[in-house]
Design brief:
Length: 146
């Protein structure tokens, strides 16, 4: 790959390009945006990383995850609106992260979310969920304190 070539069609991450006899740097935001635009998969049965015989099972699991976490998130919002405690807020945020995580997985299966973004969001949300749950447990204290 030469200095003006790129790993993504139409631009690259922080690569030097010639434009009107001056060099400019193309930012990584533009590269990510182009990777979203260049993705043209809309059928989960045609995604290269997913075997077609497993696509219905994966779709069913992800749709159930989206539905289940959305229902739980709605219930958590109602519970938080009634209680207004930090513990309920933390659990509501965790369930909201689980909904977002499930939606990112669904977007990845349909080719709307690149695999790199999928992994970034999924692992970051896993970490955030773990931290928030541990903090909620830490704040709850012992049974004698309540």
């Amino acid at each position: 790959m030469g200095p003006s070539a790129s790993p993504v069609s139409g631009g690259g991450s922080l690569c030097r390009r010639k434009s009107d006899d001056r060099s400019t740097y193309v930012g990584s935001f533009r590269t990510i945006a182009r990777s979203f635009v260049s993705m043209n998969h809309t059928n989960p049965f045609e995604v290269e990383w997913l075997a077609p015989e497993f696509a219905p099972v994966l779709l069913a699991v992800i749709f159930l995850a989206v539905a289940g976490t959305t229902i739980l998130f709605g219930a958590a919002i109602v519970a938080y609106s009634r209680r207004r405690t930090t513990r309920y807020l933390l659990i509501t945020i965790v369930l909201g992260l689980l909904v977002a995580r499930s939606l990112v997985g669904l977007g990845t299966v349909f080719g709307l979310v690149p695999m790199t973004v999928h992994h970034l969001v999924e692992h970051s949300s896993d970490f955030a969920i773990a931290v928030l749950v541990l903090y909620a447990v830490y704040r709850s204290g012992t049974a004698a304190a309540e």
